[in-house]
């Protein structure tokens, strides 16, 4: 598997493979762009046709609803004109007259009623009495409007059994032209032959109709029974619905209260002041476009595969080893171009050749860098102690001469300290040179930490060290302070492996220009002071001689 994966990775870097994939990518992108443009075009055309079709259906259904309402109002008006003046005197006679007309003209499924200004109501049947019982008499909206002489369509309401009802009413006028009673018909909204086109028909699979009363802000009828007599959504929920409530009639796309995008057609029902909405989800409307897109995407796969094969065969013959990299190498070999790495754009066949050349060039440069580092190490070793990394005697003497020149020029002073470790030889003898070397390294670190960065700590040789304290305002006090620091840092045990070693130090010092004005005499003075301190004060007592 590892070998196969390696071969696949190598083949994926091939120029042929890359060009074939590039060509396929161009074809696929072009196809996708065309499909998108075609989809948008088809959506626009299908949307226009669907909107026109829905508007036509909505117009037909709205006209049917309008005709049925007008027919019921016309019937009420004819009956109101034929109501004998003497009949209202006896309610039984009136009830019989109403029942007879109800049987002859059954446009109101629950029946007819006559309401008088004094509150009496005469109905055509006990069923109608029961249906109106929750309202405690005729609903006030249509009764009040008709009492004033107007034909009215009341707000739809639910009867005693929960069925949706609506009342239509006309005035009954007397000889003087005044309203003496109100003749009303009560119909169930789901009665056969009334709003059946709204409630029993679908548009496509998921679409349907809505009948809306803007005055009452109510859904009068709907293909979904759950929406009947529900309040319309508040403003802002459905922008197209808000426009329809404000008087817009036409088509549009909107998102309903349930979050479903719909294509809607809106038509007025003039007789009732309502409007009808024919709606269908856009997913269903544009489903054909989506299916066409999937079909085109599937069909295009075969030409793409053929195209890949053609590109692979043609490009293998067309591509030859490129000469740009070879020409650059030739120019470098002749000295006509600087020796520098060639750019590697991709790790294909040419990239591997260029990478090999750059690798060879890198090896040469690594050898040159190693040589320079070796020279730098040699220069460092010439001026630094190999064991401790401190400046050696040669560098120390050079810095001492520089310090004298600067002090003479600036009129300043400096101090020189010579340090010799006490009892270092017994450590070497008892524990070996490896322990002694580590001890010297840690001593060097502690001495370097006891002075400023501008000062110099050097290893002169063996267990001897020297410290150069530069540019001191009071060289004697500075030397004494550094002596105390050195004693303090060396007084703490030094851990080497499992050992805790303690060494003392004898320190001698010299001040420039008090003790001497040249390097040799300063060194001799400090060295003599160090030996004097070692002889006079013993192993752990030291002296700085100024």
TrEMBL record:
Signal peptide: none annotated. Keywords: Membrane, Transmembrane, Transmembrane helix. InterPro entries: DGC-Regulatory_Protein (IPR052163), GGDEF_dom (IPR000160), HAMP_dom (IPR003660), Nucleotide_cyclase (IPR029787), Rev_trsase/Diguanyl_cyclase (IPR043128). Residues 316-369 form the HAMP domain. The chain crosses the membrane at residues 15-37, 295-315. Residues 412-546 form the GGDEF domain. The keyword rRNA processing does not apply. CDD domains: GGDEF, HAMP, PDC1_HK_sensor, PDC2_HK_sensor. The keyword Transmembrane applies. This is Diguanylate cyclase. It comes from Azospirillum oleiclasticum.
